[in-house]
Hints:
This is alanine--glyoxylate transaminase. Keywords: Photorespiration, Pyridoxal phosphate. Its cofactor is pyridoxal 5'-phosphate. The longest helix is centred in the C-terminal third of the chain and has 21 residues, at 323-343. It is built from 13 helices and 18 strands. By secondary structure, it is α/β, with parallel strands linked by helices. 36% of the residues lie in helices and 17% in strands.
Amino acid sequence: AYKGPTSEEILRKRKEFLSPSMFTFYKKPLNVVHGKMQYLFDENGRRYLDAFGGIATVCCGHCHPDVVKAIVDQTNQLQHSTILYLNHAITDFADALASKLPGDLKVVFFTNSGTEANELAMMMARLYTGCHDIISLRNAYHGNAAGTMGATAQSNWKFNVVQIGVHHAMNPDPYRGIFGSDGEKYAKDIEDLIQFGTSGHVAGFISEAIQGVGGIVELAAGYLPAAYSSVKKAGGLCISDEVQAGFGRTGSHFWGFESHGVVPDIVTMAKGIGNGIPLGAVVTTPKIAEVLTRRSYFNTFGGNPVCTAAGLAVLKVIEREKLQENAHVVGSYLKDRLCALKDKHESIVINFTFSYDSFIGDVRGRGMMLGVELVTDRHLKTPAKTEILHVMDQMKDMGVLIGKGGFFGNVFRITPPLCFTKDDADFLVDVMDYTMSKM
Ligand code: PMP
């Protein structure tokens, strides 16, 4: 049984000793003391189904025994910096990771986070092209250091960074965007930006395959191929930020970009790569990787033996336990059930009344990266900002944890560990249904 401090004590210390900017979910924040696969346990031993752990990096499941063993074994053996000496943990994982990527994408730089990976990727694009201008998408999240905060395009996450050489293109958002699902129309904005906002040459373009923090926004079909083509014509490199969509999460493919039929020049990753261990990576071609030989470049702990041993164990678990396939099968089932929830009693919506039936405006995403956007009016798409908090709290009380995001904070983010089962999916939807019908 748990013998640690109470939630109240932890909260008091948090308020006194941790940054005032830190936030918690729920009116009464949850004290999680233990995790096992798709479950989290609080101090009273109460079990919660974790449908948001994926975003907090867990892809194989909390405390997956193989990953834990790899970490413990390597910690007992050696933990050191990545630089200076040889160690096979680093090269073994780089080799295994490179084999998951298409074409010439086979040179790996390890980092400690997604932010660092994107910072490095953007710097490499700038060095390689000799240009400074980077294009990112409105509503994107790419990190919280100076450069990546500039590329991030949501006022919620931006401080007063000096933002030079970044342009934010129109977001190809099928639900709220003005061109609906017509990806090619949105891509024209990239061409406009290049023609009117730059010298005609750019360093690159960075985007997520499905926007995570932005509220699980799938880029409209046809967008990425057209955008990549315009960027390439202007001499730029295309960067795919796979921090959330990578590692089998989208189910149909291992990487999010694959479902768009494009091959990036640089791929960045973090979160799921280490199942909770701080690890990130940039993968690119040998030719692009050359730019870092112009100066000395290193990262003390990026790709250290313990983290890379964990990374290798993660890849093996994904393969052996067929987690990508599970993400596809169970994720598709879950999405179908969420769509059915949305469609329930469609006729009442026509009356424009606020009711449970007009509550779900959109269900989207792929595999185990799903979003449910709550609105108080389906026609006006008015964000249900406060209602979502109520539903989340109630769902927590019934034993289900889900996340939220989107610019207005009105989108449920469902990103469970990839070992989530059909029964888990049923439980989640039943609890959501019950909670909403009580609103
Ligand atoms: N890119 C994306 C798509 C992300 O979602 C995040 C984190 N939410 C990052 C980059 C930054 O990663 P980190 O928090 O590990 O720096």
